[in-house]
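Case 301 in the screening queue. Each case pairs one protein sequence with one candidate compound; here the compound is zinc ion. For every case the pipeline is the same: read the inputs, emit a complex structure as tokens, and attach any notable structural observations.

Predict complex for case 301.
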Amino acid sequence: MDKVIRALIEGGDVSLTVIQNTQMVQTAANTHFLTNLGIATLGRILTAVTYLSACLKDESGQVSVTFKGNGEGGDICVSGNYDLSIRGAIDNPYVYLPPKPNGEEDVEGAIGRSGSMTVVRDDGYSTPFVGTCELKTGDVGDEFARYFALSEQLPTAFFLVTIPDDENCVYSGGIIVQPMPGAREESVERVTDLLSKTDLRDKLTAMDAEEVVKKVFGAESYTVRNPLYRCTCSREYLRDILRSFGEAELRDILAKEKRICVHCHFCNTDYAFYEEDVDEMFGKRKETWESNDSNSTEKNC
Ligand SMILES: [Zn+2]
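Case 301 output:
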């Protein structure tokens, strides 16, 4: 089962989050038919947004991150809720680039080294916070670290690993550390040293996340939560959005197309709305609508 583990280490000086989300990324791979590069790219962003979601304070809180880079993957959007329901989509799920000389997927090439990254965070009780950063390297961890430094004024280190093979996710996870206010410099240095150790990736992929928290970082107490790839769309939710377009607009589409199709790009689900749905949206029961319109039978699909 996927896990988000949070602990205070170094005597409370440093906040540690260890994420293991292989199943979440595998669901994304299955939902979008992702290539290995698509898995490596979307997987890392899903991990980072899992962290942002775990930081939400209010039960109704949600966060969305959109990358608009000049890379081969096109736009990438990932959203998460307080309950750790996470979902994402990439414009080009079939993105392919030759692997880098070290054998790793060219995630930077998929995202792009210029463009923007926008974070919309709704804490549930005030106007959503919107922060935008320019992309510099296309490295997911670097871009999120820069966002936290510039927009939230919080130094944050992201160590993200997603390993695809044969269009499946073999492993996905990450480590995120943040010094607490007034943290001692030597505590922060010790943790930064641990993050730069060359065998950290091997430990992360070989051990259970709880073992990493205990054995690598020496945490004695911690909290565990279970994130999930889950879309929050529903027929009712989309009906509300459609209603906001206004009746005339919807009747116009119905007259031309016979039905209104809505596609949810997060879970790849198609919804169709028909004349009777639009009648219902605007409080006209079908019988009433028909009795008021002598041509109605011709309009039925
Ligand atoms: Zn959906």
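Case 301 observations:
- The chain has two domains: 3-229, 235-299.
- The pocket of zinc ion is lined by residues 231, 233, 264, 266-267, 269 (CB under 6 Å).
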